[in-house]
Structures are given as C-alpha cells and as structure tokens.
Amino acid sequence: MSTDQSQGVATRSCTDEGQIGEAILSARQIAKSFGNVHALKTVNFDIHRGQVTTLFGENGAGKSTLMKILSGVIQPSSGEILLEGDPVHFASTTEAQHRGISIIHQELSLAPNLNVRDNIFMGRELVGAMGVDFAEEERQTRLLMEDLDEPIDPLTPVEDLRLGQQQIVEIARALSTQSRILIMDEPTSALSASEVEVLFRVINDLKRRGVSIVYISHHLEEALQITDHAVVLRDGSMTAYAPRQDIDLEWIVRHMVGEGFDLGSPPEGYALGEVALSLQEICVPDPTIAERYLVDHLSLEVRAGEIVCIYGLMGAGRTELLESVAGRLPISGGQIFLEGQNVSRLSIAQRIEQGLVLVPEDRQRDGLVQTMPVGQNLSLASIGDFTRGLFTSMSREAQVIEDSIRSVHIKTDGGDAEIGSLSGGNQQKVVIGKMMATQPKVVMLDEPSRGIDIGAKAEVFKLLADNARRHSLAVLYSTSEVGECLSIAHRVLVMSRGRLVAEFGADVTKEQIMAASGEAVAA
Amino acid sequence: MSNNNSTARQPRQGLDLGRLLLEGRAFFALIAIIVIFSLLSPVYFTTSNLLTMSSHVAIFGLLSIGMLLVILTGGIDLSVGSTLGLAGVFAGFLMQGVSFEVFGVVVYPPVWVVIILTCALGALIGAVNGVLVAFFKVPAFVATLGMLYVARGVALLMTDGLTYNNLGGDPALGNTGFDWLGFNRLFGIPMGVLILAAVAILCMLALNRTPFGRWVYSTGGNDRAAELSGVPVKRVKVAVYVLSGVCAALAGLVLSSQLTSAGPTAGTTYELTAIAGVVIGGAALTGGRGNVRGTLLGAFVIGFLSDGLVIIGVSAYWQTVFTGTVIVLAVLLNSIQYSARKTKQAPSPSASPQAVTNSS
Questions:
Q1: What is the total count of domains within chain A?
Q2: In terms of C-beta density within 10 A (0-12 exposed, 13-18 middle, 19 or more buried), how is residue A69 classed?
Q3: Which of A252, B35, B232, B277 has minimal Cβ neighbours within 10 Å of its Cβ?
Q4: Is residue A448 part of a domain?
Q5: Which segments constitute the ABC transporter domain (chain A) (predicted)?
Q6: Of A373, A483, A355, A356, the residue nearest A420 (C-alpha)
Q7: Residue A307 shares a structural domain with residue A169
Q8: Taking CB atoms and an 8 Å cutoff, what residues of chain B touch A390?
Q9: Please, what are the domains in chain B?
Q10: Statement to judge: residues A57 and A95 lie in one domain
Q11: What is the span of the domain harbouring residue A40?
C-alpha cells in the first residue's frame, strides 16, 4: 500500500479535467469562535486534486470544527474557502454537496432496514412514469459497485453487510452524487485489518479518478500509509502542514502534543503477587454459526500487580472474552477463578462484589448513563458500599465521588456536571473511576484508549500502572493498536480467532506482535 | 484538580426568566389554574372545595406515582386503569363474604385483610407485567396493553357486569369501616389525600436516598451500562411494575371507598391520565428523567383543571379538549427543555472549580 504509486498519471478516465495535484479546495485564514472560545485560529492549507489530506490532532484540537466548516455544517467566523480558486460560501451541507463535497461520518448514515440500492438513492429516487424506476437504480448501483471493485449485490439489506462494506456503500452514495471531495471521519475505527485494506484500495482507486480525500484518524500509523499531505492541529491552531515525504510518525506526534510522548513503561520494583485471575478453557459459542467458538478453549492467568495486554484484530474475540469473564456473556465451557475461587456461576453484580470488574469498550453504549450527572455515574457501581440499612449516605457518597474525581484526574466542574459536558477522555476516566471505586482486585479494560487522544491515553495508562504497583491490582486490557502493547504491559498476549497464538514479555517488538497476529490470520 | 481547561470559559448568564418558567412550568401552571378559576368562581378557592378536589387528585396521583416509577425505567404501564377497576371489584367481592362451599361457611374478612389482599392482587398483576417485560422481552407497551384487557375482562366476569353497592359492611360480621378510606378525615384532611402523601414521601425517599432509586434512574438512562455496573436490571424492572400495580390497587380501594360502590368499569382510560400527569411533571418517556415532585404537580394540574371546568360549568366535551391541549403543551415543553440541555453540553459554562454536592 505505498502512497507514491498513485501520484503519477491518471490511469483511468478522470471525471474532472485538469492536472492531478493542483489545489482544488483551499482554506485561507479560517477561524471560528463560539462565544469566547476560539475553536479554530487562522488555518491555512490546500486540498489537492486526487490526493489524500489527513487532519491530525488530539480530541478538541479543532478537527471536527474544521471538517464541519468544509462540509457546510457551520460557517467560519472569518477567513474564506476557495473552491478551484473561487471563494465559496456554503450555507448548508446540501449546498456543499451540490458543489461536490460529501462527508462520511464515523457513525454511518445508512438505513439498515433498506437494501443497498435504496440507500444509495435515498432522498433522490429516480422516478419514471410508473413510479420509482427500480431497475435503473439497480443498474446504476451495480455499476458503482463494479467501479469500486466490491461485489456487493444491490438488493442486499444493509444490515446484512459487514461494517466495512457498509462504508463502501456510503462511499458509493457519495460518488453517485458526483462528489469530487470526500471527507472521511475516522473511517477505519471499526474495521478489521482486511477491511482496512479494502478501504485503502478503494481510496487509492478514488485518487486515480481525481477524487480528493480529507481523512481524519486517531490511528496515526494507518493514516500515514494512505496520506499524501498532513495538516496537524493543536488547540485550534494549525501547527504543521507538510507533504508525506517530509514527515514521519514522530513528526506528527511532536506537532500534535507539542512534546515527546510516552505511553509509559511497565511498573517495576515490586514483586508480583499470587495468581489473581485464572481462566481455564473458556469457551464462548458463536451465536450465528453452530460448532464455532468466538472464544475457543482459552486459558490465561494474571497475577496480582501484573499488567497483561491482549492484542488482537477486530473480530479476534477480545471483547467476547472480556465480557464473558465479567458475566455479561454466558460461557459454554471452562471455568473462571478469582483468587482461587470459582466465580463462573456468579452474576455480574456478584463478580463486581468479589472484585472482578470490566471497563467496557463502548463507553457511550455500555459505560455511561447519560441522563445522570458525573457524580452519580461514578458512584453507580459502588453504591452498596455507602448504604447503611435502607438509605444511602449522601455525605459518604459525596466523599467517594470527590475521591474518584481526584484519583482518576477527571477534569470537571464537579460531581453535578452533565456527563455530556466532558471530553471523550474524561468520560472514559469516569467509566474507569466508577469501576475503581468498587476497589477491585482485577480490572479488565476493553480497548481503554478507543476514541481518546494521546494525552488522555497516557494518563489512563499511568493510572493503571500506579494502581498495579500500589494496590497490587491485576490489570488485563485489550487493544488493537500495537503501540499500546509496548507501554505498561508486563506481558503481551496475541489473540486470533478466539485463541491465544503468542505470548511475549515486555521486551517484545512491534514487528514480533504484528507477525504473530498476521501469521494467525493467514493460517 | 479541575478546570485547567485551555479554552476560555463564559460566565453563567444571570437567572433567566424563560428558563425559570420552563423548569417550573408545572408549578406555574398550577398557580395559574388556581388563580384563573378563583376569579371565575367564588367557590373554587375555598378550603372545602380544595379538599374535595384534592381527594379526586388522590386517585390520579397514586396512579401517576406508580406510573412514574415505570416510566423512569423506560417502560410504560397501560394496565393501571384496569387494575384499579379490578382491585375495586375484588375488594367488593371480599366484602360480600367469600363462601367456601366445601365447608359450608361464608368468610367475611375484616377490612384490613381486604386491603392487604387487594394490594397483593395489584402486586401480582404488576409482577406478571414485569416478568413479561424484563425476562421475556415483551415490549412494555404490548405486555401492559394485554393486561389492560385481561384485568378489565376479569373484573367484568367477576361481577357479570354489575356493580357491588353494599361496601359498608355489617357490624355483626365485624367487617365495617371500608368507607373509612374514602370518607374519613384526619385533621380535616381526607384519607385519600393522606395516603397519596404517604406514598409520595415513600417514593421520594426510595428514589433519592436508596440504591434502588439510583438503579431505577440508571436502568432508564442506559440499561446496558447499568447492568455492567452490577445493577440488577431485570429485578428493578419487575419491581417497578409491582409497585405500579400496588399503587393502582390502592387507588382502586380509595375510589371504591369514596363511591361506596365498586363497578367493573371504574378507572377506564385512567392510565392515560396517569401518563399525562407524569409527562406534565417533566418526566421523559424515554426514561431516566423525572421526579415525584413534578409528577404530583402534574396530577394536581390535571385534577384542578378538570374540576375547575366542571365548577364554572364548561361542558364535558370542552374539558376533554382542554386536557388534551395541556398534555401536548407539556410534552412540547419537555422536548424544548431536553433539547436545550443537549445543545448546552458543548463547553460547559460556570467557573466554580468544584461543587461536589449531590442532588437528584
């Protein structure tokens, strides 16, 4: 997936004339403020025809604001946007779409109950004399899919497609409206490695056809594979803008965080305790296919004070493993021991009481109660600890909340703040703080760094390392980013297709991990 | 510890009148209703009338509080009107004496036994609803709609469509005192109102001060997150339907005592009035938001409005129109309030560094 191959001559007939590489959309001195808050300060960059421009930046750096300005959702406070040299002003997304700018959101905007054809023509159905001309729509959809080299049948309901395919459908829809500029927000965050490959192939194909891409991702290494230009934002200012050949990972990170970053190292200087969590031959059956296991006779041990990382691609069974250990998913075989005691038959609440907790992967769906303020979210799992008789002690609850806010470093106005007023990283800390308040012996975290920025990531890892050292907490976390394996973990386990395929010490290299998981995929 | 935000913060804008009116809307609506009807009719604002109206409100209030618990978990209970009717009929049936033909005896249970058995019946109906919803995943709307028909049907079967009129009991049989619930007054306040007050206080305490209350709110806010936090989500759901059933049975007892008769069609469409009370009180039908205070205000708004219309002689047809309008208006204001909350979420105002106080 080299990026240089596509910068040459267009091999297919271009939908647009003109030379590849010229600036198609330019931001000139773009600034945006909300009241006194300056979300963006004088941003200048060009989007080149047939190339990928990636926006890098932590959460809150201004990426989404910039993206919204480019796609017409909001208007800049000052500065201008030049489309092929002419100043343009988009009053709405429809207007931007009209001029060939489409946006593909992280949460896809497809109707799952409708089929591919109906989704692509949603809102602009081709109407013939006899009502909607389904045959023509189907023909055009088929052509689009052929163009994208993705054999998806136009009559398949979207809900039957894998997420990666749904994304392709969304791209097809954008193309069918003659989009020349596609803005993609975190397109790979939910894709498996093979789906990412397909997506990148499609992107390269689009580039050859002269479509320009604006790409946003937290996954820096991945974005580097595909991008031609990088725009780095920090605190609303553009800190760097450079073509691909002049940059590397370190350069991006340096400009994103303003300093060298470190996700930490395994805590040292203490002896690990007894085995805290022991899984023996855990099986979780696949609900859709009989005789297949999502978690396949898996055994592992974590000792008190030890930090273990499970690396695996999407679909490797990491989430299913952790959810079954927490009690959310039933296991069909095997046993779970917590400090030597069999907890396989206990309910979620009982396991929490025994000291086995899970910080789920999707904090919006499984972690937070959005209708409750920060404080009540923090105390939800430990509320029994400060209840005497029938009633909850409000002063003790307030104390627990205050301690949690302090110990996990949540930036908030206090326990009464709305949960939605916190940034993603701080919301994640609320979920972690909630589980930590139960004073667990073993904490499992499913992708604890998903969708949070590098600064918050480092803080979360530091918090876990501190707890492992000070309170002999056993930590088991899963990740799909190799870089995160090489941080605080004493041991790295590689999971694939429901099984552990490799185990490494803290001195493992990225290449070893990727090779281990890669081999497993090929097998 | 907090507030090292890099973005500039806006100071909170002073107390804004629109916001105050919006948040206290049920209260202001109630004041407005009392003022307007007092001007239109000299008898409206008299102690005796207020007490009479309050004892009407007691029925709706009891149903609304039970409904509130269910709605807070994100459910709905359409069966409360029928449960009320069945509870009244069941109490009437017990008061007439239960004959055991095998032994050739007729048992006349004392009133307190009648009350307990009737409440148990309400709890049983609620338990069926709750188990259907929580364990068998039947949508709450459908499960309780079915129960609406079943309970009403059973009430009609028990009486053959007729009404039990003689609920006074007989001193010789030792089962007098049923009218005590509806007619008696303590310190000049009707029993029904006192029962409502007691239930309201208990619910308030349960919701604000016990883990159960927190579980109710978290189940309605996000049941997946609640479950992973160790909240017994299914048991919480069953419990709220049981409590709603008990509240409906209590309302049935109070109503049949007030009327000294128990008809099988009593309480028809009361479930809708109960939902209206909850909604006017500011609760969200999606669950997780709402409180007892608001719900009580909602029940009083509906009760005082419809009684007021009767007093000034407005036709019953117009009453329906007015009530409907008030309900829609209330829901409209709810959505304005909650959408305002959502847009407000961005960078939070207020600069007080730390205010860890708890309220709910």
A1: 2
A2: buried
A3: B35
A4: yes
A5: 25-260, 277-522
A6: A373
A7: no
A8: 209-210
A9: 32-334 (1.10.3470)
A10: yes
A11: 22-257
In this structure, is residue A388 part of a structural domain?
A: yes
Same domain, A344 and A386: yes
* Dist. CA A216–CA B106, nearest whole Å: 80
Q: With an 8 Å Cβ cutoff, is B11 touching chain A?
A: no
Residue labelled with tokens 């000139």: A28
Read off the pLDDT of residues B216-226 as tens digits, 9 standing for 90 and up: 999 999 988 99
User: Could you tell me if A158 and A287 lie in one domain?
Assistant: no
At B12, is the pLDDT very low, low, confident or very high (cuts 50, 70, 90)?
Answer: very low
Q: Which amino acid is at A488?
A: I
The DSSP secondary-structure symbol of B12 reads P
* Partner residue opposite A383 with nearest CB, options B205, B211, B232: B211
pLDDT for A170: 85
Nearest CA in chain A to B342: A420
pLDDT attached to residue B8: 37
**A165 and A103 together in one domain:** yes
8 Å CB contact between A305 and A327: no
Minimal C-alpha gap between B343 and chain A (Å): 10
Q: Tell me which chain A residues have a C-beta less than 8 angstroms from the C-beta of B224.
A: 365-366
Helix (H, G, I), strand (E, B) or coil at B314: coil
Identify from A65, A366, A404, A413 which residue to disrupt to test chain B contact, counting B C-beta atoms within 10 A and taking the largest count: A413
Q: To probe the interface with A, which of B10, B73, B356, B360 has the most A CB atoms within 10 Å? A: B356
CB pairs under 8 A between A and B: 152
Radius of gyration of chain B (CA): 22
Q: Work out the minimum CA distance from B215 to partner chain A, whole angstroms.
A: 8
Q: Per the CB < 8 Å rule, is A415 touching B356?
A: yes
The minimal CB distance from B360 to the residues A348, A376, A409 is found for A376
**Is residue A427 in a domain?**
yes
Q: Which two three-digit tokens encode residue A153? A: 């049948």
Q: Report DSSP letters for A94-138, one per residue.
A: HHHHHTTEEEE-SS----TTSBHHHHHTTTS--EETTEE-HHHHH
**Tokens describing residue B310:** 């009767």
Q: Is B209 exposed, middle or buried (0-12, 13-18, 19+ CB in 10 A)?
A: middle
Say yes or no: A212 and A323 in one domain: no
- Chosen for mutation from B3, B205, B358, B360 (greatest number of chain A CBs closer than 10 Å) is B358
Which parts of A160-274 are beta strand (E)?
181-185, 212-216, 229-234, 237-243
Choose the weakest-confidence range: A16-20, B91-95, B98-102.
A16-20
Q: Which positions 205-234 of B are in contact with A (Cβ < 8 Å)?
A: 205, 209-211, 214, 217-218, 220-222, 224-232
Q: What is the pLDDT along chain A (523 residues), one digit of tens a residue?
A: 344 443 333 333 333 344 456 888 888 888 888 766 677 888 888 888 889 999 887 766 778 788 888 888 888 888 888 888 888 888 888 888 888 888 887 767 788 888 898 888 887 788 877 888 888 889 989 988 887 777 888 888 888 887 778 888 888 888 888 888 999 888 876 677 777 888 888 888 888 888 899 988 777 778 888 899 888 888 778 888 888 888 887 788 778 766 545 677 888 888 888 999 999 999 998 877 777 888 988 999 999 999 999 988 767 888 899 999 999 888 888 899 999 899 988 999 999 999 999 999 888 888 899 889 999 999 998 888 888 777 888 888 888 899 888 888 888 878 888 887 787 788 888 999 999 999 999 999 998 877 677 778 888 898 899 999 999 999 999 987 777 888 889 999 998 888 898 899 888 877 777 777 654 333 3
Q: Which chain A residue has its CA at the smallest distance from B290's CA?
A: A371
Phi, psi of A425 (to 5 degrees): -65, -40
Q: Indicate whether A251 and A348 sit together in one domain.
A: no
Which of A58, A357, A371 is most worth mutating to test chain B (most B CB atoms within 10 A of its CB)? A371
The beta-carbon neighbor of A37 closest among B7, B225, B356 is B7
Q: Does A409 sit within 8 Å of B1, measured CB to CB?
A: yes
Of B222, B225, B355, the CB nearest to A414: B355
CA distance A409 to chain B (A): 7
> Do both A240 and A320 map to the same domain?
no
Do the domain assignments include residue A12?
no
